[in-house]
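Lab notebook page, bench 4
Experiment: in silico fold of construct C2
Operator: M.H.
Input chain length: 298 residues
Purpose: comparison with the prior construct
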Amino acid sequence: GQEKLPVVSGVALDPTGKLMAAVGDDHLVRILDAQSGAMVQRLKWHTDWIKASAFRPDGQVLATAGADGRIRLWDVASPDRPRDLAERLPVIYTLAYSPDGQTLAAAGYSDKVWLFDGRQGTLLRQLAGPGSDLRALAFSPDGSRVVAAGRSGIARIWDTHDGHRVTDIPASPRRVCALAYSPDGKLLAAAGQQRVIRLLDSTTGSPVAELPQRPGAVLALCFCGPTTLASAGSGNVIHLWDITAGQESRQFVGHTGSITTLALDQRTGTLVSGGYDTTVRRWNVTDAAVQKVTRRNP
């Protein structure tokens, strides 16, 4: 049957779309069947709220981290042979793998972004972040850039190869909680407590567009195609945006608490969400175009 979940703070999908990892406030890592939601494995090791999880792009490793300041790399095929990163860090809020899986980035309640070797788990470099409370990380689709943002509202972009700072973007006057690159890498979406999603030119940092404000802070962003952006947060609703039109194209309603995390299954066009209502939900994004045309009512 269905597993009773904790407050869900992170959901990650493996690249095959078969497995899903859900993490949260009960300190457990749950590996679920992504289609049925059935429990595959329950992994116990963390000693505090797990805030983030990320599958390496090859699907062989799951990275988890959180309030205990520890990062573990689980071998998906044999989770009883994990690798722990030597560094004891402050609270980690967010993890991201580079597209080639060679680098794992971590950030949280500190003014640093850590880049680890995606295979060995050794520390490659520390980057000086834009403020001391970082909530969001993203790699550009080509892997050449990594961006972080948080309480200061500044999104700082680095070159991943040598770690030099490329640019600082004033993304928001308030805390940034979510960042996402468009699939072509040209746009960076940023949002958070200010409730407005800004689309920025990822090279120059200049503002391209602002999407109309919706209730609640934005805690998660996820591109669902070249021109479709999903956003969610404390308003309990997932908003799908047509970024070329600058308009909301659809809403997914069902969560009864803040939505903390969004992930897209690239193969099926299924959007997965998790949140404070202790549920993980699946939404079909691909039929949105059909419904958008046929449903004329607001």
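Observations: The two ends are 37 Å apart (CA to CA). Residues 288-298 have pLDDT under 50 and may be disordered.
Next step: discuss at group meeting.
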